[in-house]
Design goal:
The N and C termini lie far apart (60 Å). The protein has two domains: 61 residues, no CATH class; 198 residues, no CATH class. The chain is mostly helical. It contains ten helices and no strands. It is globular and about 70 Å long.
Length: 262
């Protein structure tokens, strides 16, 4: 039985022609998205080819310090990306996002490698790198959405928050509504994905495993594990970044430091 169909570069180029559809729509509707689309396509190709070459080397080398080093680089990029996507900046935002991404993704991935996949070496790159990458990518989205929602809520609800503080409420009571709203907003997309997985959509990892010849039930088991890892990491990361932001923007004397926004 053939495990998978090996694609040639010409076949990949044929798939790339589909981007012409997007370009045509942009030209017809005068969206002016041709340049961003071209740049995005070029970055997709170059970045994925680069990571493919790196992973081939990592898979052959198979040393724990190489896997850890690559994971650190991935985590730092994810944390910086989460901060860059936030409109309301404040001093320390980069530290908060990196710490949140790092803690949530590495805790959950470590649980998967040590507790769930017990029959492998924890630094086996075939498992460690893809798992960490998927968890990082989804935790990053939740952190970015949660952080952006929280800081925006603090700005739009400024008068309400300051009124509560003036009337004797502590900082938690004043910001509780904004915290709940931000955490809920950050977690909701992942929960919605869980609602429709397998019915409306087949996740990319599961699709890749099926194409490579893995039995469907095994692919489903892996995907279930991945979905729960992603959901828990998103929750941990969102709560972490919102709370870290809360402690930076509200003092121990229960004062709202609205002036720190850059």
């Amino acid at each position: 039985m053939i495990e998978y169909v090996e694609l040639t570069y010409w076949q990949v180029a044929l798939a790339a022609l589909l981007i012409v559809i997007n370009g045509t729509i942009s030209v017809v509707l005068h969206l002016r998205m041709e340049k961003p689309l071209l740049i995005a396509s070029a970055r997709t190709i170059s970045q994925l080819l680069l990571v493919g070459l790196v992973l081939e080397w990592v898979f052959r080398w198979e040393r724990w310090y190489v896997v850890i080093g690559l994971g650190v680089v991935m985590t730092l990029i994810a944390g910086a990306t989460a901060a860059s996507g936030t409109e309301r900046r404040y001093p320390g935002i980069w530290i908060n996002t990196i710490v949140s991404v790092w803690a949530s993704a590495w805790i959950v991935t470590s649980f998967a490698l040590f507790a769930i996949l017990q029959d492998i070496q924890w630094y086996q790159p075939q498992y460690a790198i893809p798992l960490l990458g998927m968890v990082l990518g989804n935790a990053l989205n939740g952190i970015s959405v949660g952080l952006n929602t929280f800081t925006e809520s603090l700005v739009t609800r400024r008068e309400q928050i300051e009124s509560l503080l003036a009337l004797g409420a502590n900082r938690w009571e004043a910001a509780h509504g904004a915290i709940r709203h931000a955490v809920r907003t950050g977690m909701l997309p992942t929960i919605n994905s869980m609602m429709i997985v397998g019915i409306v959509s087949l996740p990319g990892m599961m699709t890749g495993q099926l194409i490579s010849g893995m039995p469907p039930i095994q692919a489903v088991k892996y995907q279930i594990v991945i979905m729960f890892l992603i959901t828990s990491a998103t929750a941990l990361g969102t709560v972490s970044v919102v709370l870290l932001t809360f402690f930076r923007l509200f003092t121990n004397q229960h004062q709202y430091r609205r002036e720190v926004f850059l």
